[in-house]
Design goal:
Elements lengths: L1 E6 L5 H14 L3 E5 L15 E4 L6 H12 L3 E3 L2 H6 L2 H11 L6 E4 L22 H8 L3 E5 L9 E3 L2 H8 L7 E5 L5 E8 L3 E6 L19 H18 L3 E9 L2 E6 L9 H4 L1 H21 L11 H8 L22 E2 L3
Parallel strand pairs: 1-2, 1-3, 3-4
Antiparallel strand pairs: 5-8, 6-7, 6-8, 9-10, 9-11, 10-13, 11-12
Helix pairs in contact: 1-9, 4-7
Length: 340
């Protein structure tokens, strides 16, 4: 019997429902449980065919343990090596190369120098930077946020350059991004599991947290949803994430990808709502079983994105012959739409 584990922190509803659902579907072939770590020894396995990672971004010990598990053959969801290397500013650059609309974004150095550095450590950084050129590029209002952050931490809406310098002076050692504001007509948050199963959820980030998935008006068109689904699959194909969310702000009918580096996205029933929660639990369970079934002992069972594959093989980032589009699940609800 192959074991499927889930590694998590404070959340409860999703891990508990995930384990229950896998065990309902797994029969005598697969069993799910909460990961239980007694010790980590180099190159020794944890005895899981698959591990769903929900917490290692906040716990370096877990991240190192998952890399060790991966090298011994565990299929870790998401790939801990890529997740360690990825960040939101790179995501935006990749989207530009793929032709997916994103807000104009500039990288901003930290206000305070990192520990154990001095002025000499920044010999290649201009003082002052071309702030006027940066502000002309992004415009105002704009948003400033950590280039690798999440959870709405250290996010600021800025109205002018004076506001920028004031807020930037309070960000300490965070490396930030300055990003064009997209004043949107519609907003969507999309789950993507396995790089192919998509759940498009209407979302209102301006609402209180517990009401953000409550949207009264329907999507503007089926064509918009099809385009969003295409972008979701394409982004996750290139990034290589098995479990991720992508957010889109729609301005003048154009969906702009706002945030698509969320490899441990919120899945608590109290925030995403019951219908979305059921979809995430069921789809994640079926995909984990799918990965456990294809698991091969002693081999690399990780997912690697098209960006890494192209770079490693020396191939162009975008090949002239594109693979056929993958299929999403056809389920839809009032507040959550699929494109099929």
């Amino acid at each position: 019997m192959k074991k499927i584990g889930i590694l998590f922190g404070q959340e409860r509803s999703f891990p508990e429902a995930f384990v229950k659902r896998v065990n309902e579907l797994g029969g005598d072939e697969f069993r799910a449980e909460f990961v239980n770590i007694h010790k980590i020894l180099q190159a020794e396995p944890l005895d899981y065919a698959v591990i769903i990672d929900r917490i290692s971004q906040d716990v370096p010990f877990y991240r190192a343990a998952l890399k060790n598990a991966a090298i011994t053959g565990t299929a870790v969801i998401n790939n801990p090596f890529w997740w360690s290397a990825d960040e939101k500013f790179f995501n935006n650059a990749l989207a530009v190369k793929l032709g997916i609309p994103v807000p104009k974004t500039a990288l901003i150095p930290s206000y305070e120098r990192p520990d154990d550095t001095s002025e000499q450590s920044f010999s290649n950084l201009a003082f002052p930077m071309d702030w006027e050129g940066i502000f002309k590029y992004t415009g105002f209002p704009a948003y400033m946020k950590p280039f690798d952050g999440g959870g709405w931490k250290e996010v600021y809406k800025l109205h002018d350059k004076e506001d920028f310098f004031d807020k930037h002076s309070k960000t300490g050692q965070y490396v930030m991004m300055l990003q064009e504001e997209i004043i949107f007509d519609e907003y969507y948050r999309c789950y993507c599991i396995g790089g192919k199963y998509v759940r498009i959820m209407q979302y209102e980030p301006r609402n209180p947290f517990h009401l953000r998935y409550v949207v009264d008006s329907p999507p503007s068109s089926p064509q918009l949803l099809k385009k969003i689904e295409k972008y979701v699959i394409q982004l996750n194909e290139y990034l290589g994430y098995d479990f991720n969310t992508v957010e889109f702000a729609v301005r003048d009918g154009i969906p702009y990808a706002i945030d698509f580096c969320n490899p441990a996205p919120d899945a608590e029933v109290t925030s995403v709502g019951q219908e979305n929660f059921e979809w995430v639990v069921d789809t994640a369970a079926k995909y984990a079983i799918e990965r456990a079934r294809s698991h091969q002992e002693g081999k690399d069972n990780l997912t690697w994105g098209a960006y890494v594959k192209a770079a490693a093989s020396g191939a162009p980032l975008i090949s002239k012959t594109k693979p056929a589009a993958k299929t999403s699940t056809p389920k839809s609800t009032k507040t959550t739409k699929s494109t099929k």
